[in-house]
Known about the structure:
Blueprint: H1 3-20, H2 23-43, H3 48-65, H4 76-95, H5 113-131, H6 135-146, H7 151-158, H8 162-180
Amino acid sequence: MSKDKTYSELTVWLLAVRDHRDRAAFGDMFDFLAPRLKGFIIRCGARPALAEEIVQDVMLTIWRKAAMFDPHKAQASAWIYQIARNRHIDIVRKESRPVPDELGEDPGTEPDASQILALEQEALHLKQAIQQLHPDQKEMIEKAYIGDLTHQEISTQTGLPLGTVKSRIRLGLGRLRKELKGLR
């Protein structure tokens, strides 16, 4: 089977999934795409195990969001590879977020009672500070840091522009810094 024929079949498979939730078409698409997506993600710099995880996530996203595919706006392969690329970027960003020194732990050390009490008090102060935020800022902070969503995922979920999401998070974090400044 030629590469062009298979890529045109990709559109047929994707439309069958979009329009009829066709499991057989999804299976054919998975068999065709999985090794290609894994190779693409590895070439983007991911470890093989991470690439497999991303492929699974991308395929699940394709199943869930097939209704968003419009063959008049993009080729099926471009739409799918963009999902894969974006998912890889999201994971790289999450992995490269700096961990504050206060949150870093030495492996094998058990906290004593005073450390546990101090941590509980800090958590209480943080919870109170979050409750004092403007509701829009509070929602964005909770989605980003408790829900572990990317800014783009929050934007998609809430329907807000990406810049609005980022501004609310930035303003909320600024207020939290002021509120929690005296803790340390």
